[in-house]
Amino acid sequence: MLKAMNDKGEGAQQRAAIDEVHDVVVVGAGAAGLNAALFLGRARRKVAVIDAGEPRNAPASHMHGFLSRDGLPPATLLELGRAEITRYGVRLIQGRVEQIDHGYNVRMVGGQVIKARRVLVATGLRDELPDIPGVRERWGKDLLHCPYCHAYEVRDQPLAVLGTHPGAVHQALLLRAWSDDVVFFPHTLELTAQDRERLEARGLRVVEGEIERLVVDGDRLRGIELTDGRDVPRAAAFLFPRMVPRDELLTHLGCAKDDNGWVATDRTGRTSVAGVWAAGNVIDPRAQVVTAAGMGSAAAFAMNTDLLDEDVDRAVEQRRAAASTTVRG
């Protein structure tokens, strides 16, 4: 009986907390969203973070290039971040946001509405992978994307680059710094004469033919099989995915986009819609974890300043109104 009463009490407290107007609601609890929440929590702002629990880098076992966190599993970073922000009173809400109104009402799947004065969207992006057998199974293991994130761990090994995206040529040229044995598979990508010249000049071997599948043995990549039956042994492979921003919330609000179709922001992440910021991979496909965290911090700084200006303006208006009442009295 006591437990039931406690559960009801906790539920009522949670509902009351959600009914409050938050200074900032952050949508997305990756590096960008969590770092923004940390900054704002330390600024003593009332903050809620909503997360659907679908981090882009979930398949990766480790992340790299983040000072003092190099080699840390991505899930551990997020776990540490969640623990840190809760120390400053930030509320974590598990769920999916389906819409943000112009009045900054954040509507979740299931009907829950969380009120905000400002909103930060840090929903990231999704990687669209080619339909080649073995690609999805090996993604984030020994089929990799970012040379800066993962190439050091497969340095000096026989590497493959799959030509499934125009960015693959640059990827292959870049990888040559980590291995003397890099094979480029054009697959269905049409290489220009300049592409071939640059690849050959860099010392990369080009193997023609469409890819049939990734050859896997004992939960390890062993090679690339072509449709003509040839099997090229490789220890690891790189693939440039099609990156699609999860920007539906921003698009619905009418946020302006740049010439490349990504939501446009200023240096702080401020969008064209008043009171709405964005940070991380949802606006920058090149942002690594450390970059996204920095973007979240920059957005939080700007949002707190914006809120401060509003708070001061309101205080001035109230002071003048009080003074006017006193004079009339």
TrEMBL record:
Residues annotated as domain FAD/NAD(P)-binding: 22-294
Keyword Oxidoreductase listed: yes
UniProt xrefs under Gene3D superfamilies: FAD/NAD(P)-binding domain
Any matching Pfam family: Pyr_redox_2
SUPFAM superfamilies: FAD/NAD(P)-binding domain
UniProt keyword list: Flavoprotein, Oxidoreductase
Catalytic reaction list: [thioredoxin]-dithiol + NADP(+) = [thioredoxin]-disulfide + NADPH + H(+)
UniProt keyword annotation of Oxidoreductase present: yes
InterPro entries attached to this UniProt entry: FAD/NAD-bd_sf (IPR036188), FAD/NAD-binding_dom (IPR023753), Ferredoxin-NADP_redctase_2 (IPR050097)
Protein name, per record: Thioredoxin reductase
Organism for this UniProt entry: Nonomuraea africana
